[in-house]
What we know:
Chain A has 223 residues and is mainly α. Chain A has helices at residues 7-12, 19-25, 28-42, 52-65, 69-83, 88-99, 127-149, 156-164, 169-204. Chain B has a two-stranded antiparallel ribbon.
Amino acid sequence: MTATPDIIDLLAGIEPGSPVDAIRHERPETRAQAQASFDALFTPAYPGTVSEQERYAVATFVSGLHADTVSRAFYEHGLRAVDGSTGVAAAVLTELDLGYAVGPFGHYPSPRLADENTDGPRYRVAGAHRDILGSRLAAALEHAHLLVFRPREASREALQTLLDAGWSTTDVVTLSQLVAFLSFQLRVVSGLRLLGVDLNAAVDKPTTASVDTTASVSTLRGL
Amino acid sequence: MTDTTISRDHLPGPEVFTQAELGWVPWLEPLAEDDLSERHWTGLVDASRAKSAYFALLARDPDILGARTRTDKDIFYNTRSGLPRAERELAAAATSRTNGCIFCASVHSRFATHHSKRGDDVQRLLDEGTDSAQDLRWAAIIDAAVALTATPPALTPAHIHALRSEGLDDLSIADVIHGAAFFNWANRLMLSLGEPEVPAAG
């Protein structure tokens, strides 16, 4: 029996026996439940009415928005495997080019936090792609962009837009979990990848430990 | 038939970040306790969570809720080794402060204060933000959480080195990464499926 590959190991390039692999095995429950979360969203025992194509299309979009080319290639591969010749994969990739932004930004509902309000692109699917994606998936991409970049601007109206586009209440819960989980997974991948580079460098070149690389960031802030 | 959001009378929302206890009201209909199946109870993990509108709503997709909850518990409660609980909560609070989740920030700033006994430092994080004056160790944790919370994530080797120079071992650095990453999950659910409210006094 072949074990299912651990998806975070795969995306972060964590090799068996590497320093980061050893760290992950000190938290076996976190490792197992992150994998169980991925499984629940991408190979669900009870998929309900959110299709595999919708799940992989949203994941391709969200991983692309995080500028993670390895993860995006993984989810894009999954999307193309279920996409057939619908043109959805190509449309999602073109939408990605239109959706890039830097976050988090947005306005707070409370006027007392107005000094912290910031602006950025409030993305809408290009008109030409609405027919290819369909209103349901187009609404999902717009909502995913909202959740990724300006979650503080989330609203009841944004959920009603999803419901009006054909997402049921339970579908919206699944979609929200999907985008939110990916926001977690992609950050674990990004962070562990970086930690791995750091630790592998330490293993390869133990003498560099004496070089002080911390001076630029370790400034005392005002205390 | 198209579903609709729900709108109930509720109390005013918080105006600023706070360590006070807040309520939370959903914008979508949670499952009623009478309608919960065995699968739903399994997804809730702790039966008491059926009383929470937030978890009763998330129980509509019980398998991902169960895995989410078990991920959460291990990242924050498994403290036999690695980063102390107070600093895991600090990473959660800093992440929530960055994303703008007043509800999550209230819960986890309260936990950070409880476990660190440093309520003034925590309050400064809420009042003045993630650039507020902090000692070097807390600054390194907050800065790493903030950088990882950016989209695209902006954590750099300098952040890792700053954590290490403040005495964090590799497992503790991984704990900072997981604590901040997890709150990028939790913030997005809390912010987008409902809203916080200030409970009536007394």
